[in-house]
Amino acid sequence: MGELEVLDETRLAEELQKLPDWRHRLGGLVTVYKLPSAAGALAFIAAVGDVAEELVHHPDLDWRYRRVYVRFSTHDAGGAVTEKDVEAAHRVSLHAAALDAVPEPERYPDSVSP
Known about the structure:
Elements: H1 9-17, E1 23-25, E2 28-34, H2 38-55, E3 60-64, E4 67-72, H3 83-98, E5 102-103
Antiparallel strand pairs: 1-2, 2-4, 2-5, 3-4
Helix pairs in contact: 2-3
């Protein structure tokens, strides 16, 4: 897997077809998951942490009660989307489904707070 290979627009569109919970925005793969409870959100954050450690690829996270905002991009590739981001998004989606999370990618904001 060419982990630092930046995905071109065609390849990115193909991968997004396989990632219905995710969108390409702000130079990365973004989504929002709504969990059944705040405790569920914390369990999800822990699962995202496990994925991040397994792949040595850490997302930007924002926790708001039952919602968790997630953004993956590859800093070593200039903040672009790579295979590493796609793999991480797939794994996170599996954990989200297992925790009964509802995807709400349209809720991801149009700008990132510093």
